[in-house]
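ugh ok so i messed up the first submission bc i forgot one of the chains. this is the corrected input, ALL of the components this time, i swear. 229 residues overall. if the numbers dont match what u have on ur side tell me asap before i send this to the collaborators (the ones from the other lab, u know who)
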Amino acid sequence: YVLTQPPSVSVAPGKTATMTCEGSDEGGKSFQWYQQKPGQAPMLVIYYDSDRPSGIPERFSGSKSGKTATLTISTVEAGDEADYYCQVWDSGTYQDVVFGGGTRLTVL
Amino acid sequence: EVRLLESGGGLVQPGGSLRLSCAASGFTFSNYAMTWVRQAPGKGLQWVSVITGRGGKAYYADSVKGRFTISRDNSKNTLYLQMNSLRADDTAVYYCAKHDSINYFYVLDHWGQGALVAVSS
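and heres the new structure output, hopefully the right one now
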């Protein structure tokens, strides 16, 4: 199972950033999103397609349509600049945890 | 507060072995599956291995199958990754991460700070 993300997204402060994650089949999988800032460990920001962990601002939202998930960050701040990775569990024969290649968000 | 602390990283020669540990606290360790994820320098996240909460089942990425072994000691709240026959392309920061379920591997809700493994002669 393969997850495809655009390598980069750029957005001005205060605007809305959207980044996509396309799965290789329709499979009905749940998507998670992780934020990773330079030199830091990844952090969960969206799980089960659209749920937010406690402590994650409401500016972060997730959605899914078919085999594509989308992470939306509204009113982008300089502190949101990071790499964002999507992830699914391919619960077939091999039980793989699969990550997308990541999208670097640049705040202009 | 959930805490995950990796240790055991370092420099090793090609063909050598290393064992990583991940000490967990702040939650009932045996109730959650655990995963190892690695990140080569300047690259993205790559899943390595997962183990169920009771330790009965483990799965591996193709790139490490037959060389790495994941295990856990629930009495010590510690996760392990035994790495044998190490290669240069195993060089990475290795993160341990906690799933949100004992037997399902959907979500990684907490991550450690990582341990650097460098394979070089």
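quick check: DSSP finds no helices and eleven strands in chain B. that seems consistent at least. Chain B touches chain A through 24 residues (CB under 8 Å).
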